[in-house]
């Protein structure tokens, strides 16, 4: 049998390269899509609590609880995801890193503040209604995520923003910081999804609104859970993509 000529032999690699290029999405359009998806998640959780769960208040009733899912999705998922992607923005790849470090830390701090307010809302609601705290898997997972988040922020602040940390310590801690950053986001998504499911089981009980009958609220909240999951997976995928990582540099500016 005759051997394939050069043109025929190059078809495979050429097609593979073309298909790879077709799958290569620029970061900024991807980031715009991700931002739209995050805003949609926040809008949907707010709509769910306003339309089906009675709205919002600070009187210790179930309307006080409604602040909990809104603040958790807004802080622990969407704003935290935005903080995680700061160093993937191409504009951050040149010049001093300090302004981007401050932005990254500020976004993470904002996410932490919203998360603490969300925890305060659910504890206030439980204590006002005489409901026990911290008995479900969702509550254990959520509080564990928040505690891990607080340790992550404090360690990152000490290692990367304070001037006393030596370069060898930063280099040693950096991969640990990156790993736990993705881990915390995945735990946040898992906590939010389990919390949505738990709330539906608690709320949809009467004969015409049982969860197993899949009423409109269940369809809406389940869709919200899927969108939160997709958001988290896409953020982790963006963090893992080699071509979107900030190039390492040994320049003094990059070590600032």
Automatic annotation (TrEMBL):
MF (Gene Ontology): metal ion binding; transmembrane ascorbate ferrireductase activity
| Any Pfam family | Cytochrom_B561
GO cellular component labels: late endosome membrane; lysosomal membrane
Query: What reaction does this catalyse?
Result: Fe(3+)(out) + L-ascorbate(in) = monodehydro-L-ascorbate radical(in) + Fe(2+)(out) + H(+)
Q: Which residues cross the membrane?
A: 27-49, 70-90, 102-125, 137-164, 176-197, 218-240
Q: Which cofactor does it need?
A: heme b
**Do you know which PROSITE patterns this protein is assigned to?**
CYTOCHROME_B561
Record flagged with keyword tRNA-binding: no
Instruction: Identify the residues that the record assigns to the Cytochrome b561 domain, covering every copy.
Output: 33-240
Task: Provide the protein's localization.
Answer: Late endosome membrane; Lysosome membrane
Topological type in the membrane: Multi-pass membrane protein
UniProt entry tagged with the keyword Ion transport: no
Q: What is its EC number?
A: 7.2.1.3
Q: Which UniProt keywords apply?
A: Electron transport, Endosome, Glycoprotein, Heme, Iron, Lysosome, Membrane, Metal-binding, Oxidoreductase, Translocase, Transmembrane, Transmembrane helix, Transport
Q: Which PANTHER family match?
A: CYTOCHROME B561-RELATED (PTHR10106), LYSOSOMAL MEMBRANE ASCORBATE-DEPENDENT FERRIREDUCTASE CYB561A3 (PTHR10106:SF38)
Q: Describe the function of this protein.
A: Transmembrane reductase that uses ascorbate as an electron donor in the cytoplasm and transfers electrons across membranes to reduce iron cations Fe(3+) into Fe(2+) in the lumen of the late endosome and lysosome. Reduced iron can then be extruded from the late endosome and lysosome to the cytoplasm by divalent metal-specific transporters. It is therefore most probably involved in endosomal and lysosomal cellular iron homeostasis.
What is annotated about its quaternary structure and interactions? Homodimer.
Q: What is the protein named?
A: Lysosomal membrane ascorbate-dependent ferrireductase CYB561A3
Which species is the source of this protein? Catharus fuscescens
Q: What is the lineage of its organism?
A: Eukaryota, Metazoa, Chordata, Craniata, Vertebrata
């Amino acid at each position: 049998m005759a051997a394939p000529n050069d043109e025929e032999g190059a078809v495979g690699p050429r097609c593979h390269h073309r298909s790879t290029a077709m799958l290569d999405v620029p970061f900024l359009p991807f980031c715009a899509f991700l931002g739209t998806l995050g805003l949609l998640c926040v809008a949907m959780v707010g709509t769910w609590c306003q339309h089906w769960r009675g709205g919002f208040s600070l009187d210790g009733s179930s309307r006080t609880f409604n602040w909990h899912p809104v603040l958790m999705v807004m802080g622990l998922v969407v704003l935290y995801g935005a903080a995680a992607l700061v160093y993937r923005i191409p504009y951050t790849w040149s010049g001093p890193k300090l302004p981007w470090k401050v932005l990254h830390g500020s976004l993470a701090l904002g996410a932490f503040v919203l998360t603490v307010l969300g925890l305060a809302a659910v504890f206030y609601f439980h204590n006002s209604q005489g409901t026990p705290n911290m008995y479900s898997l969702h509550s254990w997972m959520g509080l564990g995520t928040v505690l891990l988040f607080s340790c992550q922020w404090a360690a990152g602040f000490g290692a990367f923003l304070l001037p006393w940390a030596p370069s060898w310590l930063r280099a040693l801690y950096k991969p640990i910081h990156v790993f736990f950053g993705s881990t915390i986001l995945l735990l946040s998504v898992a906590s939010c999804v389990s919390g949505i499911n738990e709330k539906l089981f608690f709320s949809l009980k009467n004969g015409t609104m049982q969860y197993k009958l899949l009423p409109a609220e269940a369809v809406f909240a389940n869709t919200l859970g899927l969108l939160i999951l997709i958001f988290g997976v896409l953020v982790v995928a963006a963090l893992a993509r080699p071509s979107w990582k900030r190039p390492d540099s040994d320049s003094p500016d990059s070590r600032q």
